[in-house]
Amino acid sequence: MNAFILPKMTWPEVKEALKTAEVALIPIGAQEQHGHLIAEGCDSYRAEAFSARLAEKCFPKVIVTPTINYGISPHHMDFPGTITLRPETLINLLEDIVSSLNKHGIKKFLFVNGHGGNNAPMAVAAENIARKYDVEIGHTLFVRAAKNTIKEEIHSEYFGHACEREVSECLYMVPEIVRKDRIEKADMYDSFTVKYAEDNYVTLVHQFNELTKNGNLGDPTKGSYELGEKIIEEALENISIFIDEFIASKRS
Amino acid sequence: MNAFILPKMTWPEVKEALKTAEVALIPIGAQEQHGHLIAEGCDSYRAEAFSARLAEKCFPKVIVTPTINYGISPHHMDFPGTITLRPETLINLLEDIVSSLNKHGIKKFLFVNGHGGNNAPMAVAAENIARKYDVEIGHTLFVRAAKNTIKEEIHSEYFGHACEREVSECLYMVPEIVRKDRIEKADMYDSFTVKYAEDNYVTLVHQFNELTKNGNLGDPTKGSYELGEKIIEEALENISIFIDEFIASKRS
Amino acid sequence: MNAFILPKMTWPEVKEALKTAEVALIPIGAQEQHGHLIAEGCDSYRAEAFSARLAEKCFPKVIVTPTINYGISPHHMDFPGTITLRPETLINLLEDIVSSLNKHGIKKFLFVNGHGGNNAPMAVAAENIARKYDVEIGHTLFVRAAKNTIKEEIHSEYFGHACEREVSECLYMVPEIVRKDRIEKADMYDSFTVKYAEDNYVTLVHQFNELTKNGNLGDPTKGSYELGEKIIEEALENISIFIDEFIASKRS
Amino acid sequence: MNAFILPKMTWPEVKEALKTAEVALIPIGAQEQHGHLIAEGCDSYRAEAFSARLAEKCFPKVIVTPTINYGISPHHMDFPGTITLRPETLINLLEDIVSSLNKHGIKKFLFVNGHGGNNAPMAVAAENIARKYDVEIGHTLFVRAAKNTIKEEIHSEYFGHACEREVSECLYMVPEIVRKDRIEKADMYDSFTVKYAEDNYVTLVHQFNELTKNGNLGDPTKGSYELGEKIIEEALENISIFIDEFIASKRS
Amino acid sequence: MNAFILPKMTWPEVKEALKTAEVALIPIGAQEQHGHLIAEGCDSYRAEAFSARLAEKCFPKVIVTPTINYGISPHHMDFPGTITLRPETLINLLEDIVSSLNKHGIKKFLFVNGHGGNNAPMAVAAENIARKYDVEIGHTLFVRAAKNTIKEEIHSEYFGHACEREVSECLYMVPEIVRKDRIEKADMYDSFTVKYAEDNYVTLVHQFNELTKNGNLGDPTKGSYELGEKIIEEALENISIFIDEFIASKRS
Amino acid sequence: MNAFILPKMTWPEVKEALKTAEVALIPIGAQEQHGHLIAEGCDSYRAEAFSARLAEKCFPKVIVTPTINYGISPHHMDFPGTITLRPETLINLLEDIVSSLNKHGIKKFLFVNGHGGNNAPMAVAAENIARKYDVEIGHTLFVRAAKNTIKEEIHSEYFGHACEREVSECLYMVPEIVRKDRIEKADMYDSFTVKYAEDNYVTLVHQFNELTKNGNLGDPTKGSYELGEKIIEEALENISIFIDEFIASKRS
Q1: How close E183 comes to chain A (CA, Å)?
Q2: Count of domains in chain A?
Q3: Whether A34 and E8 lie within 8 Å, measured CB to CB
Q4: Is there a contact between E40 and A10 if contact means CB atoms under 8 Å apart?
Q5: CATH number of the domain where residue B11 is located
Q6: In chain F, whose CA is at the least distance from the CA of E118?
Q7: B126-169 pLDDT, tens per residue?
Q8: What is the DSSP letter of E200?
Q9: What range does the domain containing C227 cover?
Q10: ipTM
Q11: Chain B: nearest CA to C140, how far in angstroms?
Q12: CB-based contact (8 Å) between C189 and chain D?
């Protein structure tokens, strides 16, 4: 694979890469339960693998930073092994990474997020950091870039965590963290909390074990390598378009 | 109007109200440009008026706190008169309000937000505060509760700020802040920034004057008192349903 | 009324106003018990009304920001409905407001405070912010500007909260928040805490319900519209003199 | 001298002292210019000496902590040698001292302040800390306890810093820091800033070199050992009365 | 390899592991230049690999958390690709990890550090966190546990970064990040800064490019797989002894 | 004694001193138990006395700031009278002192530390502050500069607190804080905690009363004035050499 992955490069190699690279990808993950079927590093592994593929596709225009292996997961803390950061910890971490790379001349950043729980703090971070350091920042929950595939292929009422979409992504990119013999449907509650957990006109702060007994959403049994490929390749295609436009843009 | 509005009540009156009220509504606004057509307190006035109507509708089950008259508006700072808080200031303000009311026995809260720019910090605040103080918190950009009306009646490609939807809300609830002789369509740019400003798979940190010259979105000339009534009454109806279910719920 | 009240103005109106306005007034209130006789928003309503009158008197030289509806009231928390900020929350809020307006070209600020409990954090804020942003800041508990009237007309040993002075200010400026049938003298304790609560050589941290049973100080039955008028008009006169001198001053 | 001064005691001696001592005195000073006539540690030396005398007078009921040798002096920074803390640094320092002593069983504290610039942050600290740790805190700019002497003996329009009052205190308690051959009257400006620097209805953030050329206020040539003795002994007498009442009080 | 690596486990597997595991290992790395010879993720890769081996050796008594891929590297910022955290960011990250695992029942922690620049903030973090959460924490720059080997085998005057010791560790554990054709001696300056950079009676804050031109210390050409094996196996042996004693200890 | 001690100087004297002085010494102490034999201000008194002697030796090239009388002592909190700061309080205090003196033109600083528990936070502070304010900072636990004497004269297995070394320093510099009739050997535990308390390959967070019953280490009965003289004079000599080289260095 030909891609600029910072932790795998020596400083003279980075120096050379900075002659062509204009955008830094920062992969953000989580350490969080993903049911009986996916290992808890799921979001970190996916963000890291996706960023590496994106860097390969966009070579030599982007660099990838080391992965942030922790995210915002207080709603999963009732499941063993979950670790959560306070939002300000993640925000400060992102600021430090951006401000360091800014000193090396990088002016454009894309936060490549693998975990929905990071979205709000990531947005707060991006808004603050972009203005404080006068840099340009885009942020994405990368799988949202597979809009068409998701619309066409995913039909569960609730999905987005340890579901058919996510297990497919893993089967395609990091199959070693999937327990293929433990893939099962979500065991959901039918409750007030589920109704307002998200995607409704009011959002209710909740714990994930108020929603699902096994920690899954949707129907992971419908996941496959092929679906994963379709999701990831659409997302890679769309985000690489963004990156090309991002590099071409002259905003001020 | 019969509603429990805290700043308008004496302490013995509050003491009496707390015998029936279970939910506190916290109106969150902004001081931010809204084009040539709406005064800059728009989001504060709308959040305050909406909360008062909701309190009347849900009387005697809810109380309303004083309005937070400032929000997160860095993207509007190029327009005179806009004032922005840092996200942590808003988060701390919400924490102080919730923790104070918690001492008076309130355990359920609804953040009633009038400004989209507050969404991410509000979500961060709700997640933190609910767990830190062991209280229940819902949060809403209240106009999202008028889902049907918006789907049926609003057809602009971009809207959500000083647009036909917002001017209609004002005409219905706070007409005195609308300059009826200055209502005009948005004067939009056609650019990279507009494409990724929001509602796309990547979100780009941006300034509002990269999107629109006059500060509007969409087509405010299509707004009306009647449209405002339809929006607000649908939102009131839906959120009052949430409140009833919120009060009825026994979550732990 | 002819006055520059920011939340009531559109951005083109603000742009025009900034051609003549040199001082920003920031009204600071509280949500805090004021006995059986005044609604809890008393200090916010008074600060807002006073600032508006001052802006009218000093038109077109000043602008008024949205009111800060919360203050520092931990000592009143034993009375239902009181909400208190941490001092740092208020300090940060003031910093954000000043720094935002500074970007719009305002260099002189007057904090118009309606609540004694805000005095120390307000002073800390003013000292910090003025130096950090290189702006000029004055701060006032506005009623102190009615020095002569208070000296001549108020004779209670303890006063300053839900007293004859404050109820008079309300009767003159915001009579709708006074419960005229519930005006009664303070029901004070005679204790160590009262002795050192303030205005002595040692100041003791205290709760207001250690001082007074009904939440009042002094003798509100001696209050009147006429006394309110005398207080407010003297304060307006004196502070408008300050503003004229503030604008005329060239300090370095 | 018989007094419990913590830094001069071993832990077994402290253990014994805690059997009778109920109040901790915390001396707060400053490193700040005091004209040509007093050394810059003036406020620290005075607070330390006063606290030691007070501890002797109140023996064995009080202990004295090490002196805080720095204070809030941004307004003196234009004079060489002045060092200033940010207010939050002083507030945190006081919190750490109180919380540590609270673990050793002390429940009552008196902040003994030698520098007016510390007053507002000290008040903020006292309010916060007393409630956070459920302890009782009084705070004093100790010289204010000499009310009668000051009223009778000090006649300058402006005083309170490197003035006849302060140099007298030094001559009585710490004469080694007075340059007796350099005592001279303040060389004041006549300006807008002086008018509103303090003790007026608006307080203006200012620099001390806008007020006085040599750094003094008032007329230090009128100071004397005898005046110092009168001031300090009255203050000691009054504050020792407070301490007796503080110890005797049962507040909750 | 048989070891409990949290990100590679599902929640039911973690639940099972927590029946025997008593100590959590937290690997801490850095993104920092390591000369022409080692990739910049060196300290992260080494900390992660060492922790995994230690977990295998101590199976089933320890778990390993995801690796912290960033550290404190301001002194290397003049070399391209280095990223540094503020110390408080690392401290907060460690607090969040410990407090999360504490909720899952872990009471004993070992910070496994791969980068000397993290030592002081790591020590500060350990002291704070252990007392705040009432847990037991040990911390180690793991290579220090190879005391005998280092004493016997390393003879350079300055070493500890991109030196014979570190390249040997990499050759043994993570050879893929070594550029074997670029291994060369340090190109040191002879200066005041080098003299006091560390290991002297005064420590001087410095930049690494004041010490060495190529970013190395010592003589990496003397490194080998065999030396790496000797270092790592001694360190593993010693730290596994600590872990056994840590688990056996009953401290309060 | 001829030395520039800031708190003992007037501002015109400081102004004159700044013509020759290039380095500021900041003495850092602690309020912490030192067994039955030394008063709790030991580390503050030693740091202050040492700094004064160093200033005399280096006259007129250095100035000395007021002493920081508190340090980081959570591990001693089980002994009466100990007071501990949070690390961030000390770090902020040092930042305020350095940034203030930087405004007066000082560019080189030496933190003169008397207490080992301050080492890690002091190092964190030095790293942060030096880069933030672009100043040069060295830091020292000053007694480490007496390397030869300690190697030759101290033979206890554990020492470094209320030991033969420290009591000797006191006997030489501040004999009034030594209780000569209470000097006795440490009464140590033999335990896991002692083994890993420090100077081993893993450092364990611990409390001092897990190590020693009387609060001492080593054998203070072997201390003497003569040993103190040898230690202090060697340290003074070595650090004065550093200061000369520090002043001579041109690092840019």
Answers
A1: 12
A2: 1
A3: no
A4: yes
A5: 3.40.50.10310
A6: F124
A7: 999 999 999 999 999 999 999 999 999 999 999 999 999 999 99
A8: S
A9: 4-248
A10: 0.97
A11: 21
A12: no
